[in-house]
Amino acid sequence: MVKSNFSASAASECTGTQNNTPPAGWTEDGEFEWNEWYQGQVLSGYFYGYICTQIFGGWLETRLGGKIVCGTSQLLGGLFTLLTPVAARGGVYALLAIRILVGFVAGITYPTHHGMWGKWAPIYERSRLMSITMAGANFGTVVVLPLSGYLADTYGWESVFYVTGCIPILWFVFWVIFVYDSPSSHPRIDPEEAKYIESHIETREVKSPPVPWLKLIRCVPLWAIVIGHTCSNWGFYTMLTNLPTYLKQILGFDIKAQTREAWQTVFWIGAGIYVFGGLVVLVFLRTDVQDWAKDPEEEKGANADGLPSDMNIASDLKLDNSSTRTSTTRL
């Protein structure tokens, strides 16, 4: 929420400007007379901080545990969000600084999810649980954009930051009470459940080999993932940060005054973007494993029927108890 709240409220905070003399311009409505360049810098401030702490957040999680790292980052994000109206009245650079801080602590959050689910999620449930976790971020975006517009028009733009700043602080209270770093450290978990989880996760310590940087740089599939992910995020965050301003300043859209027909403009824009993306996926996406993604070692372990080595183990299972115990040991 602290990522998405600013874009909707910015349209209400700032006046429209048409000259190149910072930071003043002609007044339409809004409290602050910042031109488009300053507004763009403030909108980008979150990502200036966000990009710096992705790796750092993962490192912190391995040292301190996900509970304290994720909880503290969310608490600080809420506190910084509450300070946003004060910073805005202190000047554009004070506001930019507070948005960078919000992004800085938010960037720590995502890497901790992987570390915590690695200790809590059975290996065959991990993908689904991680997907649900990541979907929560998109759900928050869906909720906060219309909520921010309503709050800004009804109670003033400051209310956007007061509401979205209080939510993480309230969330932090429940986080401290109910969340623990691992099943073994949870005082209220059922012993059978803890035993089941710990028996279905990988806990072995593996010494990491040196990173083959030159091979990574020359790896075409890796660059395909990087480029695809970059383009996806660029489109998503461009729409997320600029759509409210575009709707108000270009289309003259007012959340309170417009009719159902006017609202259709918003839905058509959003639907068009995602329908186009879906068509591209349907045309070009392939779900079969490509040759470059196959593990040579697994290919060598295939049997005469073409089954990979892990399936060979399953085919060796016997119905009698002694054979079952032997096969379980092999698994």
Structure notes:
There is one protein chain. The protein is mostly helical and 331 residues long. It is 69% helix and 0% strand. It has 15 helices and no strands. The chain has helices spanning 5-13, 36-50, 54-64, 66-82, 84-89, 92-120, 126-155, 158-178, 191-199, 213-217, 220-250, 260-284, 296-300, 309-315, 321-330. The longest helix has 31 residues, at 220-250. It starts with a helix and ends with a helix. The model is unreliable at 17-28 and 303-331 (pLDDT under 50). Keywords: Membrane, Transmembrane, Transmembrane helix. It comes from Branchiostoma floridae. Residues 1-331 form the Major facilitator superfamily (MFS) profile domain. InterPro entries: MFS (IPR011701), MFS_dom (IPR020846), MFS_Na/Anion_cotransporter (IPR050382), MFS_trans_sf (IPR036259).
One letter per element, helices H and strands E, the order comes to HHHHHHHHHHHHHHH
Structural class: mainly alpha
Specify the number of helices.
15
**CATH level-1 class of the largest domain:** Mainly Alpha
Give the strand content: under 5%
Mind telling me the C-alpha Rg?
25 Å
Ranges with pLDDT <50 over ≥5 residues?
Answer: 17-28, 303-331
GO molecular function: transmembrane transporter activity
Keywords: Membrane, Transmembrane, Transmembrane helix
Membrane topology: Multi-pass membrane protein
Main location: membrane
